[in-house]
Design brief:
The protein is an alpha/beta fold and about 180 residues long. It contains four helices and six strands; from the N terminus they run βαββαβαβαβ. The protein has a six-stranded parallel beta sheet with strand order 3-2-1-4-5-6, sandwiched between helices. It binds pyrazine-2-carboxylic acid and zinc ion (ZN). It is an enzyme of class 3 (hydrolase).
């Protein structure tokens, strides 16, 4: 049973430059995420990819009074992954109902059960955006009792200042921020 999981958070077209809700220089971490995927696959880790997977009328969209432009609508090109995922990747879709926002990959999903069922004790997290979905996922991972590592060189925030603050919050909550490669 794999003791480890790599969780790739929301590496989707709409969060990349040219997409609906771009993370500045978000494409810069694609090769690093791909390298971690390859590395963790070789180590026998469970590979998990979360995706923002909104219905057309999601509450987070500006047309519905939310804070964000329309992004990552289910089954649209903007919701597609931009990293190279292995065939046996576990895909976790989140914020799939119209009325509920969910930044964390654990919120409203069976991610915790899947990890535990597979014997996972340690999780390593990469992806976007550091101060939103990455942070929420990392904090929930700690709450669920997983030893939680953030792959600092393979995450990217929307605003550098907010990203720094988020890293501090995660560290205080017990997330270990590290460079692995
Ligand atoms: C995200 C804003 C809205 C994220 C998702 O993946 O960090 N941010 N939806
Ligand atoms: Zn979203």
């Amino acid at each position: 049973m794999p003791e480890e999981a790599l969780i790739i958070v929301d590496m989707q077209r709409d969060f990349m430059p040219g997409g609906a809700l771009p993370v500045p220089d978000g494409e810069g971490i694609i090769p690093r995420c791909n390298r971690y995927i390859e590395e963790f696959r070789k180590r026998g880790a469970l590979i998990v990819a979360t995706r923002d997977w909104h219905p057309e009328n999601h509450v987070s969209f500006r047309e519905q009074g939310g804070p964000w432009p329309r992004h990552c609508v289910q089954n649209t090109p903007g919701a597609e992954f931009v990293v190279e995922l292995p065939a046996d990747v576990v895909i976790i879709s989140k914020a799939t109902g119209p009325d509920k926002e969910a930044y964390s990959g654990f919120e409203g999903t069976n991610l915790a059960e899947i990890l535990k069922r597979n014997g996972v004790r340690r999780v390593y997290i990469c992806g976007v955006a550091t101060e939103y979905c990455v942070k929420a996922t990392a904090l929930d991972a700690v709450k669920h009792g997983f030893e939680t590592y953030l792959l600092r060189d393979a995450v990217k925030g929307i605003k550098p200042q907010n990203e720094e603050r988020a890293l501090g919050e995660m560290e205080r909550a017990g997330v270990k921020v590290l460079y692995l490669i």
